[in-house]
Design brief:
317 residues, alpha/beta, Rossmann fold, six-stranded mixed β-sheet, four-stranded antiparallel β-sheet, binds adenosine-5'-triphosphate, binds magnesium ion
């Protein structure tokens, strides 16, 4: 159900998704043209990074602590607190317009790319405030990968798309092997092994989506954010993506937004149900809130809140 009052709210959301995806692509491509960073040689830089990135082993990996997002002062989602344990898959479910994309983007500092957007409260990665003054958003996006609803391959060959991150980062190892491994994990290798040097834009939509997943995996991310990654895929590709999600955990922690409740039930360990206030005579506040967070089995079979019960049983949403 489209609850949002404004008839063009869905368009606002789609435009926003499009522009964030575009800005993210541009930023990554521009970054490639910059001179290589003085990684190890600049000890001060290395030290600063250690200062804010020291917490491998810290659990939870991703955490919201009273987090919210506003656009031009209007709250879209507010006061969300829950944590994604290391190595888990966390699903965000809830009606359209409740702020799921706004929330998941906080974990990659992608709302920075949206004019008028403001993030409040705590958004933590391995115990570190991602919005702290010394955190470099580009560094964040190297460790926390994001896959959008509509794929955004670069206008380069299939091979160069996947090799892109490892090349920038100067990752050690055989590049051909890294590319093949990432394409295998994204369940795309068999379809593209003979056309690696063709332009990625010639792939089908479903193949492009698996390609951008391979591109994200090629840099061994610590966290993978997925915003409705399978909504454009056929059932076979969808199930391949679900298998791959299971395969890359627990090394990678995954946060996924999905409208497909069966998918959330199948793949996730924990589920967060987010919704706006739908009660008659309610506050009229259209900001989304976290209604309930818990183990997926509990959220689907024995939810504590009747609104969750109504949503997961299909009585609203
Ligand atoms: N760039 C923007 N400018 C203004 N308002 C925005 C912007 N992006 C999102 N919003 C508003 O914030 C609210 C939450 O949007 P968001 O895209 O986060 O919801 P969602 O839960 O992901 O929805 P969907 O399930 O349809 O993808 C909506 O009311 C939307 O119109
Ligand atoms: Mg969304």
């Amino acid at each position: 159900m489209e609850h949002a009052a404004a008839p063009d709210a869905a368009k606002v959301r789609a435009d926003c998704d499009e522009s964030v995806r575009g800005s993210c692509t541009e930023e990554l491509l521009a970054h490639a043209e910059q001179p290589a960073e003085p990684e190890a040689s600049d000890s001060q830089l290395a030290e600063e990074r250690r200062d804010w990135w020291p917490n491998f082993g810290n659990d939870p990996v991703a955490e919201f602590d009273g987090a919210g997002v506003s656009y031009d002062g209007v709250p879209a989602i507010r006061d969300v607190s829950f944590a994604a344990p290391a190595g888990s898959i966390v699903a965000l479910i809830g009606p359209s317009g409740s702020g799921k994309s706004s929330l998941i983007r906080c974990l990659d500092r992608l709302n920075d790319l949206v004019p008028g957007a403001q993030v409040d409260g705590g958004v933590l990665y391995r115990g570190i405030d991602l919005y702290g003054p010394r955190v470099d958003p580009v560094e964040v996006r190297r460790r926390i990968g994001m896959v959008f609803q509509a794929p955004n391959p670069f206008p380069k060959s299939i091979y160069d798309n996947v090799a892109f991150g490892p090349r920038i980062l100067g990752l050690h190892g055989d590049l051909d092997e890294i590319v093949e491994g990432a394409l295998q994990r994204a369940a795309l290798w068999d379809e593209v092994r003979d056309r690696l040097h063709e332009n990625a834009w010639g792939l089908s939509g479903g193949q492009q989506q698996r390609l951008v997943i391979a591109r994200a995996l090629a840099i061994d991310p610590d966290v993978l954010l997925m915003d409705e990654p399978a909504s454009a895929l056929d059932p076979i590709s969808t199930s391949k993506i679900e298998d791959l999600m299971r395969e890359i955990t627990p090394e990678v922690t995954i946060v996924i937004v999905t409208h497909n409740l069966q998918q959330a039930g199948r793949v996730s360990d924990f589920t967060a149900f987010i919704s706006v206030d739908l009660e008659e005579g309610g506050s009229g506040d259209q900001a989304g809130r976290l209604i309930e967070f818990g183990p997926t089995e509990k959220i689907f079979n024995q939810p504590s809140d009747e609104r969750t019960e109504a949503y997961v049983s299909g009585r609203f949403g």
